[in-house]
TrEMBL record:
GO cellular component: cytosol
Pfam families given in the database record: Cytidylate_kin
UniProt keyword terms in alphabetical order: ATP-binding, Cytoplasm, Kinase, Nucleotide-binding, Transferase
Compartments, as annotated in UniProt: Cytoplasm
Reaction it catalyzes: CMP + ATP = CDP + ADP; dCMP + ATP = dCDP + ADP
Name of this protein: Cytidylate kinase
NCBIfam families given in the database record: cmk
The Cytidylate kinase domain, residue ranges: 21-235
Length: 241
């Protein structure tokens, strides 16, 4: 008799089969929140690839590298050690041993990260790192970013592309800013999101793009819980197939 999907994980007998899931999409569509929750529910590891690009950007900003000078960024791309933790309950990142989890979320890093991540030497270094991390997770992993399904893990078991209207995304980010600063300018937030999307979609090397074989999920009218449930269902269906 064939083993059931719950009995096919060689690392953890009784657990589901290992699965690699790529979740891509524009800013504010819910990639991180969804990926973390889905990984935690299914016992998978979680990799936030945006955090890696943010960490290398933060390192450059704090080490005097001119982030608008592509040659200087390329020259420095191999210098910092970037280490990610992949526990969905406690994701974290260091750059040269320094905890970067807080500093990578500043406005300064957000404004610079698209320029740094467009530099081919940065992309090849971080892509290699991402592939080695994904290969080191025998229980499976949810990897989220912009080019995971198209470039980093083209053989992922399941590819999901999250979308949402610009208004919904600005509303979500605005909620975060309000909680943090007590106020938020929704029009400015939306413009900043769209500016970053334009830069990420128009770079020459592995731009933000839906893979041909990705399942698109429009989250505009869905709660976060509904999106998580939808992705969990897609993964479980894939494991059963
Ligand atoms: N379906 C949803 N409904 C309402 N709020 C949501 C939904 N999905 C995510 N959020 C909220 O929107 C905000 C942005 O979500 P998240 O950081 O997961 O997006 P992201 O796609 O990873 O963004 P970025 O690419 O900019 O890092 C968070 O505050 C999150 O709680
Ligand atoms: N796979 C990836 C992930 C991220 N980036 C770049 C482009 C984003 O604007 C930036 C920050 O990502 P976020 O934390 O907002 O998800 O990092 C990329 O080029 N490729």
């Amino acid at each position: 008799m064939a083993a059931s999907p719950q009995e096919t994980n060689p690392v953890r007998p009784g657990a589901r089969a290992p699965v690699v899931v790529a979740i891509d999409g524009p800013s504010g569509t819910g990639k991180s929140s969804t990926s973390k929750a889905v990984a935690a529910k299914l016992g998978l590891r979680y990799l936030d690839t945006g955090a890696q690009y943010r960490a290398i950007t933060w390192w450059m900003l704090t080490h005097g590298v001119d982030v608008n000078d592509a040659a200087a960024v390329a020259e420095a791309a191999g210098r910092p050690a970037i280490v990610s933790t992949t526990d969905p309950a406690a994701p974290g990142i260091t750059a040269d041993g320094e905890d970067a989890s807080g500093p990578i979320r500043t406005q300064e890093v957000t404004a610079a990260v698209s320029a740094v991540s467009a530099v081919p030497a940065v992309r090849s270094r971080i892509t290699e790192l991402q592939r080695s991390i994904a290969a080191s997770a025998p229980e499976g992993m949810v990897v989220e970013g912009r080019d995971i399904g198209t470039t980093v893990l083209p053989n992922a078991d399941l590819k999901i592309f999250l979308t949402a209207s610009p208004e919904a995304r600005a509303e979500r980010r605005g909620g975060e800013l309000k909680a943090k600063n007590g106020q938020a300018d929704l029009a400015a937030t939306q413009e900043a999101l769209l500016k970053r999307d334009r830069a990420d979609s128009s770079r020459a090397v592995s731009p933000l793009l839906k893979a041909d074989d990705a399942v698109e999920v429009d989250t505009t009218e869905l709660t976060l819980e509904q999106v998580i449930e939808c992705v969990v269902t897609l993964i479980v269906e894939k494991q059963r197939a």
